[in-house]
Amino acid sequence: MLDDLVTVTDIVRRAVVKLSYFHVAADVPKGPLPDVAVVIDVLRATTTIAFALNNGAESIQVFDDLDELRKTADKWPSSSRLLLGERGGKKVDGFDLGNSPLLVTPERVKGKRLFMSTTNGTKALKRLHEVKSLYTMGLPNRKAVADRLLSGKVSEVWMLGSGWEGSYSLEDSLAAGALASILLGQSLVDVDVINDELFSALALWESWEKEPEKCLRTATHGKRLMGLGDHDGDLKRCAELDSLSVVPTQKESGVLIAC
Q: What are 229-252's pLDDT values in tens digits?
């Protein structure tokens, strides 16, 4: 009878997912990588990526080096490519677009490959480009990414923020906490929070979950953007919660597609 009980218990025991968050690429530990990772750059790279793919971009290829981007993009017909470049919050001279989710409209991006380099987000993607299943997330596609993680057999997930020039960013931690809150609140798997960075992100989300846009405007990077010009629309768009169903997914190193 006891043996039967143990057998039943083993059958119904839920899987455990280990969940960690790292503030910036330099914090990622050396050694083996997990099978699954999520890169976050709320202001604004991963938000722009989500909207671009949602609006019909063929794919987005990311670079941390502008010269490498130009050389690669030159191999594509000008009619089927767009160059997106941002440094210090401003558009790179000679590029088609900067780093704004408002500008990647269907009229501009549909059917095109976007060659993208930003101050922070593309560097974070570069750090984890060898991960088998690599996704990007902002607040607008938070639930879509959570659903994707829960739909597969996942044992460990790393979330990586992009920060600002190697330093902590409030808004990326907010999004990490937002994603973790969904995973902790479901009943399909048990989630094991591994590090203090994620506990802190969860507390941050609990404080700001009803006012995510206010958090973005409080963040130093949000204030930096406002100081560069009228980025009010960008902040509103980046603070949208669960408005997109797209999950940007790396299909080959550095190339993201909609899934």
A: 999 999 999 999 999 999 999 999
User: Distance between CA atoms of 20 and 196, rounded to whole angstroms?
Assistant: 9
Separation in Å, CA 8 to CA 5, 11, 26, 185: 5, 5, 44, 25
Pairing of strands 16-22, 90-91: unpaired
| Whether the predicted pLDDT of 144 surpasses 60 | yes
Residue with the two structure tokens 């169903």: 245
User: 117 has which bridge partners?
Assistant: 85
Q: CA-CA distance, 220 to 169, in Å (whole number)?
A: 8
The angle subtended at Cα 172 by Cα 166 and Cα 177, nearest 5°, is 135
Residues 6+ apart with CB under 8 A from 76: 113, 115
- CA dist 150 and 83 (Å) reads 34
Phi-psi region of 109 (alpha: psi -120 to 50; beta: other; left: phi over 0): alpha
Domain boundary assignment for the chain:
14-258
pTM, to two decimals: 0.94
> Is 14-258 a CATH 3.90.1560.10 domain?
yes
CA dihedral 54, 60, 64, 69 (to 10 degrees): -140
Cα separation, 119 vs 127, whole angstroms? 14
Q: Is the peptide bond before 81 cis (omega within 30 degrees of 0)?
A: no
